[in-house]
C-alpha cells in the first residue's frame, strides 16, 4: 500500500542501532538539523525540533552525520526521504559511506554483546546509599554508571555511546536542581525511564527501607527488576 504521495512505506531490512548523534539534512528549498533516533546500513531515523514540510517526502537529500564523541568526524552521504511523521523523519541511503558501514558493524556487534544488559545512570549525593543501590542494580544484572551531582551525571551521560535505559535520581538532590535535571533528561534522553529514589516515591515501603532491612539483598534485585520495567515518572509540583 502506498501513501498519497506515491512513496512506498519504509521496510526494515537491516539491524538497527540507536547511537547518539547529529544529522544535517539538505534538500531543494529545505535544510534541517536533527538528532539520530536509530541508524542502519539502509537508512536512518532522526528527530527534529520542527516537523519538516510534507512536500519534502520522496525528495533526494544530502546529509552530514556526526556521532557524539570527541573523536567523531562528520560523514557525508545522500539518500531519499521516505517518511515524515510524528515519530521522526526517515531517510533511505543511496549508498552509505564505507566508513559509516564499518562504524555501524562495530556498534552492532557491541550492541548485540550487551543486548540483555540494562544500563542505569545512578545520581545520588548520599554516598552510602548510592554504593548500596549500585551494588543492588549490578546484582540484578545491570550496567551502572554513578554520579554524585547532576553536573557529573550530565558529563557521564555525554560520554556514553548509547542511551541509558533508566536514570535514577536520589532525593538528596536539591528540588530545583532535580527539576532541571529531569527537564534535561526528558529533552536529551526521551527514551530513558526516570525515577526518583525516596520513601515517598517508591511504594509500598521505599528503597531506604529495603536497604535498612535485615536481608536487603535477598529480594532487592527482583524489586529493582520490577522498578526498571514499571517505573514511576515523578514531576515537581
Brief digest:
The protein is an alpha/beta fold and 237 residues long. It has helices at residues 98-113, 127-139, 150-159, 175-188, 207-212, 220-229; strands at 21-27, 30-39, 43-47, 60-67, 75-85, 88-93, 119-123, 143-147, 166-170, 193-197.
The stretches of 5 or more residues where confidence is low (pLDDT under 50) are: 1-12, 201-208, 210-217, 231-237
* Helical content (DSSP H or I, runs of 4+): 25-40%
Q: Count of helices?
A: 6
CATH class of the largest domain: Alpha Beta
Instruction: Please state the CA-atom Rg, rounded to the nearest Å.
Output: 21 Å
Q: Work out the count of structural domains.
A: 2
Query: What would the CATH topology of the largest domain be?
Result: Rossmann fold
Major sheet summary line: 6 strands, antiparallel, barrel
Topology, number of strands: 10
Explain what you see.
- It is a single chain.
- The protein is α/β, with parallel strands linked by helices.
- The chain has helices at residues 98-113, 127-139, 150-159, 175-188, 207-212, 220-229; strands at 21-27, 30-39, 43-47, 60-67, 75-85, 88-93, 119-123, 143-147, 166-170, 193-197.
- Helix 2 packs across helix 6.
- It starts with 20 loop residues before the first strand and ends in an 8-residue tail after the last helix.
- It is elongated, with a radius of gyration of 21 Å.
- Strands 1-2-3-6-5-4 form a six-stranded antiparallel barrel. The protein has a four-stranded parallel sheet with strand order 8-7-9-10, with helices on both faces.
- It has two domains: 21-111, Beta Barrel (Thrombin, subunit H); 119-229, Rossmann fold, CATH 3.40.50.2300.
- The model is unreliable at 1-12, 201-208, 210-217 and 231-237 (pLDDT under 50).
Amino acid at each position: 500500500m502506498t501513501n498519497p504521495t506515491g512513496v512506498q512505506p519504509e521496510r526494515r531490512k537491516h539491524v538497527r542501532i540507536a547511537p547518539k548523534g547529529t544529522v544535517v539534512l539538505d534538500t531543494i528549498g529545505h535544510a534541517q538539523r536533527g538528532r539520530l533516533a536509530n541508524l542502519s546500513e539502509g537508512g536512518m531515523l532522526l528527530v527534529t525540533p520542527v516537523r519538516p514540510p510534507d512536500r519534502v517526502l520522496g525528495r533526494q537529500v544530502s546529509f552530514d552525520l556526526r556521532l557524539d564523541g570527541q573523536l567523531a568526524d562528520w560523514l557525508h552521504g545522500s539518500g531519499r526521504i521516505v517518511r515524515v511523521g510524528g515519530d521522526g523523519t526517515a531517510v533511505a541511503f543511496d549508498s552509505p559511506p564505507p566508513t559509516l558501514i564499518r562504524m555501524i558493524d562495530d556498534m552492532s556487534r557491541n550492541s548485540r554483546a550487551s543486548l540483555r544488559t540494562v544500563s542505569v545512570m545512578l545520581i545520588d549525593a548520599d554516598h552510602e546509599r548510592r554504593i548500596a543501590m549500585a551494588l543492588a542494580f549490578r546484582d540484578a544484572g545491570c550496567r551502572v554508571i554513578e554520579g554524585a551531582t547532576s553536573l557529573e551525571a550530565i558529563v557521564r551521560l555525554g560520554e556514553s555511546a548509547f542511551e541509558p535505559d533508566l536514570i535514577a535520581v536520589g532525593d538528596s538532590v536539591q528540588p530545583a536542581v532535580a527539576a532541571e535535571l529531569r527537564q534535561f533528561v526528558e529533552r536529551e534522553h526521551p527514551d530513558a525511564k526516570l525515577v526518583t529514589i525516596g520513601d515517598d516515591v517508591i511504594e509500598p515501603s521505599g528503597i531506604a527501607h529495603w536497604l535498612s532491612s535485615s536481608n536487603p539483598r535477598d529480594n532487592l534485585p527482583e524489586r529493582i527488576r520490577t522498578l526498571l520495567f514499571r517505573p514511576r515518572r515523578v514531576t515537581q509540583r
